Amino acid sequence: MTEFATPAAARWLDDAPTAVAIEHGPWRMDRVGAGLADIRFRGVSVLRALRVVVRDADWRTIEPRDVVVTGGDGGSITIAARCQRKEVDFAWTATLSLDDTELRVDLSGVAQSAFERNRIGIIVLHWPSDAGSQLWVTHPDGTSTRTRFPDAIAPHQPALDIAGLEWSRQGIDVRLHFAGDVFEMEDQRNWTDASFKTYSTPLERPFPVRLDPGDRVAQSVTVTCDGDPESGAGDDAPEREEVVLGAERVFPQVGIAASTASVSSRPRDVVRAPVTLVELDVRDANWRAALERARQDAGKGLLDVRLIARDEADVAQLVDAVAPLPIARLAVFDATTHVSEPVLWRVLGDAAAARGIRGELVAGTRAHFTELNRTHERLPDAPLTFSITPQMHDIERAQIVESIAMQRLVAENAVRIADGAAVHVGPVTLRARYNAVATTPYAADRATDVSGGYGAERVAEATDARQTSPAMAAWVMASTFALAIDNVASITLGEAWGPRGLADETGRFPVADAAELLIARGGELTRRLENLPDGCWGAAFPERREMLVANVADDDARFTIEGVGALVVPATDYVRQAY
Q1: N or C end of the chain, less CB within 10 A?
Q2: Cis peptide before 208 (omega within 30 of 0)
Q3: Is the pLDDT at 329 greater than 90, yes or no?
Q4: Residue 15 confidence (pLDDT)
Q5: 309 strand-pairing partners
Q6: Rounded to 5 degrees, what are φ and ψ at 188?
């Protein structure tokens, strides 16, 4: 039996890296693995994180290993690590120096092999609560620009050509100075990360870039802080008000995606939903077999069919195949851009009308909210869709948990963009179903059947072992409640079965029970629970006189609900409460 370091780790079936405190003068931070987190000056958390990243030619992050930490006396610490996977092999050393007002990190790295990279260097993560704060940007030529951290999720970089940054946080003036490369900032809330990120090298420069053995990378960042914390800054959160029931609204329809797993992992009983989503990529020889499997997974339910096409002929062929089936929704995405390009959308509408398809036509992207945010002005005036995965940039447990609040923000931004049209979210999966930003050409599946799996089953790192964990049930429920706002018409969960689903040949996963509860409540009247503690998400269902509350935090949540009384929701779990 596997032993885990903490109860939370046992619930998630993983062991998160242990945080090691670093303190020197007014500074306090945690070293988590090879990175720095929660960087505080005089009790104020001025930065979320500071890390060194290595990303390959397809933007995959190569996690550091063989981490060795030395020093610790006199305000100096050295972290050495190696990032190695397949052809990528890069060794680096980062030296952390601290004094009364300054934190400095110097990076020195050397390629150990020949490989192509899209990014190597220091990244700085800023807190999402910096949104709206004034920001001064210093450029390499010495000029400066005054701007703000964006409130609404910025589709493109909110700051470019960066040599330095300056802003204030809770009474502390923060200044960053970068050397060794030109930096820029992106709004990582686009991918449901709880951060803004300042990184190198500017994306306008060509990538990937080849490194040969012996090629070096040298960068530094200096963080200078001054000022006195505002009254109450750094204190524990104030006592929360009583939890209350919000206004009535209709709970979104909750569906599931067809399985892409090998048939060997099919369970005896498959969880079904009113609507089953399937993606059909005409480039793959087995797309017809994928459609047949989706029909089987759906049982007597409807299909939400997402077509992936290269041209008008592909669209016509795909529509011909799905026309005889019961269709709830139908969408088309360009195989290269991953969005509903106007020419494909026009052909889809004409073909669906000619064949008498009565399902709702949906536009948007099969990729992240990012692509919807960046392309919505050229998309059709129609219901919109996008998918969610919390692990675009980071695979740590904290990333998954903190994604939930950002999912609410993403849903709110998507509804704003839709401007009254319905929004359909999903699939919502722990890992990416495919690599939307890969630079290597797509490798079409030549198999004509799906007995060995297809789609995500063939994608490296698409499967997360935490899918089978007890905590996953709370996560799926919290995610669904975070996304369930006005004008979000449907939410599609992960796959019906297999390692990315609700069950496999060994039996049901804990998430299956949570999914069935959510599926059963689709279309019912609901009231959101307001003022819940951090990490808790829930809703009441008046006709059932029942509440569902999920807690993704590592500690039990205790609170009082107006008209109901005291409630305890165990850590990384959920409860059903009559009222």
Answers
A1: N
A2: yes
A3: yes
A4: 87
A5: 334
A6: -75, -5
